Amino acid sequence: MASKEYEYDVFISHAVEDKADIANELVARLKEAGLKVWYSSERLRVGYGVDETIKEGLNKSRYGIAVLTHNYFKKNWPKKELYALWSRPGARVLPVWHNISEEEIREHDPILVDNYGLDTKKGLDYVVEQLVHSIKEGQVNSSAKNEKDHPLQTFNKPLAVIGVVLLLPLAVWASWYFLVRDVPSNVLVQSSINKRITAFQQEIMSKHETEMAREEGIPASDQQVKSYYERYMSLDSYYRNQYHFNTGYAEFNFKKNVEPAMGIDLDVLSPYNNYEFELPDIYVIDKKRDPPAMEMTYVFINSQPVAYEIIGAESIDDERYQVEVKYENHIRYLSVKLTHLNTSNGMKRKQTSCQGFLPKETYQFEKEENDWVFVGVK
């Protein structure tokens, strides 16, 4: 259905947090109806900047659908997309309201609520039907004054004049934001992410190799590790579990801090599921204490490469910029030390130490004189 001027029928502007709740299904339904849809989850790829990719999507799309939610108005990025859509000739923006009231939308943007919008309370089938009809017709019905008469409508004349006056500064700003603003280059952003991943991985492996050489560690099988683990678990003794997580920029101790930082339920990790690694490299260091004493360490190393996706970016001010990155295979190294010595208290101890990236990290850039530089991760 895309015209000769546009590669896509519609651009989906949404908050990342709303993908699972509404955006993914809405996109699937629109595609089933035969529309060509630009959707960030399918278009943002490693090696391409967020700004340039979204700008391209905006320019190549005939309509924009803004999925308005509480999350949408909390985030800077979706609102920038909305203003950029408004800045284009024709301002063909079709808002969808999801789990948000008219009064709440009015607090954020009176122009939106006074002119048009589809509410998902009427059902997604209804919403999709009206969107598809309007987009395929290539026009919206401007004869009705609100959704009760027709779900989608253009500005009426009095409000259109007000809207133009109010939105003109936003349109100028949006054009500047996507076309001429000074931000870190895509090359700098990508190289900073890749350098962080490479440098931290090399640091982890260097320390591992040093420890294996010093402690005479050897490669092992998962069956060997399970036998050590079962022996430890069978010991009838008081026990203590300790946890540590290192990201290269921050360190976390105690289960209550490590678990949310890693984004993993630590209780489900064990040698029986390879600590949720796929085809890990495994090593052991066995001090060979006389039973029932034991002192040994086993190591699981993630053999799968780190993958990442840029899921957001924004300017903090003229001299600060940040990029949000989401990882896959973010835990790179896990070691477990099992100890039970012939001491008076007879306590056994399990010390779990992990190294890797947070599930999501924010890369920070700052302006130094006339150049952008990477300054760290949080």
Topology:
Elements: E1 8-13, H1 19-32, E2 37-38, H2 40-43, H3 50-59, E3 61-68, H4 70-74, H5 76-86, E4 93-97, H6 102-108, H7 110-115, E5 118-119, H8 124-137, H9 157-179, H10 186-215, E6 218-219, H11 222-234, E7 239-246, E8 251-253, H12 255-262, E9 281-286, E10 294-301, E11 307-317, E12 320-328, E13 331-340, E14 348-356, E15 360-368, E16 371-377
Parallel strand pairs: 1-2, 1-3, 3-4, 4-5, 7-14
Antiparallel strand pairs: 6-9, 7-8, 9-10, 10-13, 11-12, 12-15, 13-14, 15-16
Which shape, going by the Cα principal axes?
elongated
Task: Give unreliable regions as ranges.
Answer: 45-49, 139-151, 153-167, 175-180
Quote the average pLDDT: 82
Radius of gyration, CA atoms, in whole angstroms: 27 Å
Bin the helical content: 25-40%
Largest sheet: 7 strands, mixed
Percentage of β-strand residues: 25-35%
Order of helices and strands: EHEHHEHHEHHEHHHEHEEHEEEEEEEE
- The count of β-strands is 16
* Number of self-contained structural domains: 2
Distance between the termini: 44 Å
Structural class label: alpha/beta
Number of helices: 12
Strand order of the largest sheet: 6-9-10-13-14-7-8
